[in-house]
Design brief:
Length: 373
């Protein structure tokens, strides 16, 4: 088994020599951060066993916290889930996926910051508009949008995952309107509305860019299915998607001077496959999923919009008053991790003697790092 950091330490310098001048700063920073993650370069702490007969010394180095680093996503996910726990409404949810036609992918690659944002906005607005139609729900729903850009084989495939409440708050705030357990809004109409809204917004935002004519007649793929109910179940469901990176270390099978092999699950064939690439091609595929600096890949709309806190609280009051809270499932590993990280850290048991605890004896300063250039 290999690691992304190990791969980059072997091959990133040659990649930078070849492509460095054309690379965005966010890509160069990702390469630097992932290589330095949990190494002396970022500094850390030195611990020593309090039992003098043992005397075990252990260095624990800091994480890079880069959102493209596969080592740093567990803690970030747990922290985000704790923050969202108070916002989750006790209702069922729907999971939707909005995908753009392949003809638009070159434009998305060239105008990432603009088109990623517009895709998330168009998906949420189309969903909120249909849900507000009295023929379906006739009220305001909550929508969380999450941007992904990859397939299992690391190919470029921008799409948006949405989590939507299976119900809506009536416009006057007097009642909660539950949806059908297996139906939220018509997917065909949602697809057409997404297409129209996105193309209109893109033409306005990029007036000098010509959009392919074929995308106006192409059916845009929209997928919708009922998700889970219950706060813990919904949070775990979100955690699977939220801080997921393009590839995890567990999927990297081997790293050599000439080849990188990794596995991915083919959803259509429902089986695992192996991909073998030259190191430069692997790095290229990985970096195309590094988002622009400070771009928010998670956005909130409808009842979850920051400007709708009063409406969200009203919806929670109505739901609490009108129904019993759903029975919570057994606590999962994800919730255990989240709750554990919320408590004060327990003293670390010495890995050698397993009798005494490790105590902090020294802080290791980080090394000076130049900004990406």
């Amino acid at each position: 088994m290999g690691e992304l950091a190990e791969l980059l330490r072997l091959h990133a310098d040659r990649y930078l020599e070849r492509f460095g001048p054309r690379m965005p700063a966010s890509h160069r920073r990702a390469l630097a951060d992932i290589q330095a993650c949990r190494t002396p370069e970022l500094g850390g702490r030195l611990y020593q066993c309090e039992d003098h007969q043992c005397g075990q010394r252990l260095y624990k180095y800091h994480s890079c916290s880069n959102r493209s680093c596969p080592k740093c996503q567990g803690a970030q996910t747990a922290r985000w889930l704790r923050q969202r726990r108070q916002e989750i409404l006790p209702v069922p949810y729907f999971h939707l996926v909005f995908t753009v036609p392949s003809e638009l992918r070159p434009l998305f690659r060239q105008h990432q910051r603009v088109l990623y944002r517009l895709l998330m906005q168009a998906a949420a607005q189309a969903l909120i508009r249909l849900a507000a139609d009295p023929r379906f729900l006739g009220g305001r729903i909550g929508v969380l949008c999450l941007l992904h850009t990859w397939t299992g084989a690391l190919l470029y495939h921008p799409h948006v995952h949405c989590l939507a409440t299976a119900g809506a708050l009536k416009p006057d705030g007097s009642a909660w309107l539950p949806s059908h357990p297996k139906f939220l809004v018509p997917v065909h109409a949602l697809s057409k509305l997404l297409r129209g809204r996105f193309l209109a917004m893109a033409r306005k935002a990029l007036p000098g860019v010509r959009l392919p004519a074929s995308v106006r007649q192409t059916s845009w793929v929209v997928y919708c299915k009922a998700a889970l109910q219950g706060t813990d179940a919904v949070l775990e469901y979100l955690g699977r998607y939220l801080h997921r990176v393009a590839i995890t270390n567990r999927r990297i099978l081997s790293v050599t001077d000439r080849e990188v092999s990794f596995r991915f699950k083919d959803r259509k064939e429902r089986r695992w496959k192996t991909v073998r690439l030259e190191p430069a091609e692997f790095i290229r595929r990985f970096l195309q999923h590094v988002l622009p600096r400070d771009f928010h890949k998670v956005r909130y709309f409808g009842l979850w919009s920051p400007s709708q806190r009063k409406a969200l609280n009203r919806a929670r009051e109505l739901l609490t008053a009108s129904q019993q809270q759903p029975e919570q499932p057994e606590t999962t590993a994800l919730q255990v991790e989240a709750s554990a990280s919320a408590r004060p850290l327990h003293p670390m048991l010495c890995p050698r003697c397993r009798k005494a605890f490790l105590i902090l004896v020294e802080t290791v300063p980080r090394r000076n790092r130049a900004p990406p250039c």
